[in-house]
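Narrative of activities, Objective 1.

The group set out to show that a structural description can be obtained from nothing but a protein's sequence at a throughput compatible with the screening campaign. Below is one input-output pair from the validation batch, recorded exactly as produced.
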Amino acid sequence: MSDELGRVRQMWHLLEPLHAVLYYAPEAYEEASALGYAVDVRWPSYFAWRAAPLGEAGAGRVTETFYSFSPRMVGEHVPGIWSVASPDAVLAARRRAVDRAYRTLLGDSVTAPETAGAAALLRRVAEAADTTGRPLAAANAALPWPDEPHLALWHAATVLREHRGDGHLAALAGAELDPVEALVSFAAIGAAPPAVFASRGWGDEAWSHALERLVKRGLAADDGTATEAGRALRAEVERRTDEAAAAPWRVLTDEERERLVELLGPLWVAAIGSGLLPSETTLGIGKV
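Output recorded for this entry:
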């Protein structure tokens, strides 16, 4: 991995927890409940929070852009989430949720000059991101920028996170890995146990059939572990993902990037140390 791609991956590792707080914070569940969403499980609010920038997207659009979720699971929530609250109402509640969650998580750091400095640097990177052909990144980038630095920081992190994610889907498509094959092949290299990927709703039969297809391609063994070819293909997917995410970061000098890492460090520690986020996720951070 080149130094540049290593830095790109480092920034993803720093930003992902700061974005993901939305999906787990008690304040977010409270805002979702106030809108009328069931909060005994996280999926109704997850689909609403993440899909709202797309407008009243249907199940097909959400399945396509989220990629890893089974169409059946998406259909359980979409388009029904829009009969509970409109996308505009969800976006307003999303901003309130992040505001409240960050104030709890970061305390006085919310108004610290360091947070404002990190937000300013991240905004430059996010605004440099080309969102052509990247639907989730484009939809988030089109939203108004918040005035408050901590909210601008989360917004920038979200644009960049979805920019990377959209590029990752293109890399998976280039590797001819369909949504369930993408999950099975990722589990096969040890990114997370198969049980973690079960949250995407595919079921044992779909998982088994996807494994059979990967075995026929020489990418996995019968026991679900990756072959050498399977590991090589997943490494290529990650490389292409990093390459596709690299361009916006070039707007910063090396010194600015190092300063941003320094500024984000305490915020990352607060997010990771909060206990809100699961120790293992389908993203495989820290594993690949």
